[in-house]
Design a protein that fits this description.
heterodimer; A: about 110 residues; alpha+beta; Glutaredoxin; four-stranded mixed β-sheet; 5 helices; 4 strands; globular; B: about 90 residues; GMP Synthetase, Chain A, domain 3; three-stranded mixed β-sheet; 4 helices; 3 strands; about 25% strand
C-alpha cells in the first residue's frame, strides 16, 4: 500500500484522528500536548499517529493536506486544523459539536 | 533574521492592512521540537484575501506564501488571520 493510500485509509476508518509528535501519554511537543489536553477535556475518543515513528507518512501528509506542521486533527476525514484552531474551536464550543457529530464523545 | 523574511513574504502576497510578527523563539530554545533550529512565531494579519475563507483555508494560504520557510526556519507558527470587516467588528465597542 502506498503512503497516500495509508493516509486515506486512516482517515476513512477513524472518525477522529490526531497526527502528533509523541503520544497522548507522552507528547513530545507543547502544541501536540495542548491539543491532547483539549481533546481530553472534551472526553473525546480518538486515534493517534506518532509521526516520529513514521517519517514517510510525516512528509507525505504535509503534502496531502497542504499543512506543513504538526499536530493535525482530522474529524470525519476533514482537516480541522492545528493547535491554535483546535483551541479556538474549543473556546467557541464548536469542537465539542464536531466531536459529538462524529460520535466520538463519551 | 527570519521574522523579517516572514514579513516580506506576507507583505508581498497579501498586501495586509495589519501585520504583526512576534518572535517567540527564545522562549522555546532547547525543547525537543526546537532542536532542528526552527523558530516559533506568532502572526497577526488582516487582509482582504481572508474574506469568506475558513480558518483552515486561511492558514493554508499563509503556509503556501511562506513556502520553503516552513520546512526549515519555522518550527511553529501561531496565526491570527482576519479579513478587514472582521477586524472592524472585533475592535468596535
Amino acid at each position: 500500500m502506498s503512503v497516500t493510500e495509508r493516509i486515506k485509509q486512516q482517515l476513512e476508518t477513524n472518525p477522529v484522528i490526531l497526527y502528533m509528535k509523541g503520544t497522548p501519554d507522552f507528547p513530545q511537543c507543547g502544541f501536540s500536548g495542548q491539543t491532547v489536553q483539549i481533546l481530553d477535556a472534551c472526553q473525546a475518543k480518538y486515534a493517534h499517529v506518532n509521526i516520529f515513528e513514521d517519517p514517510e507518512l510525516r512528509e507525505a501528509l504535509k503534502e496531502y493536506s497542504h499543512w506543513p506542521t504538526y499536530p493535525q486533527l482530522y474529524i470525519k476525514g476533514e482537516l480541522v486544523g492545528g493547535c491554535d484552531i483546535v483551541i479556538d474551536l474549543y473556546k467557541k464550543g464548536e469542537l465539542q459539536n464536531l466531536l459529538a457529530a462524529a460520535g466520538a464523545t463519551e | 533574521m527570519s521574522s523579517e523574511s516572514i514579513k516580506q513574504l506576507l507583505t508581498t502576497v497579501f498586501k495586509p492592512a495589519v501585520l504583526e510578527i512576534i518572535d517567540n523563539s527564545a522562549a522555546h530554545a532547547g525543547h525537543a521540537g526546537a532542536r532542528s533550529g526552527g523558530g516559533h512565531y506568532h502572526v497577526t494579519i488582516v487582509a482582504e484575501a481572508f474574506e469568506g475563507k475558513s480558518m483552515v483555508q486561511r492558514h493554508q494560504l499563509i503556509y503556501k506564501a511562506l513556502g520553503d520557510m516552513m520546512k526549515q526556519q519555522i518550527h511553529a507558527l501561531g496565526i491570527n488571520a482576519l479579513s478587514p470587516t472582521e477586524e472592524t467588528q472585533g475592535t468596535s465597542k
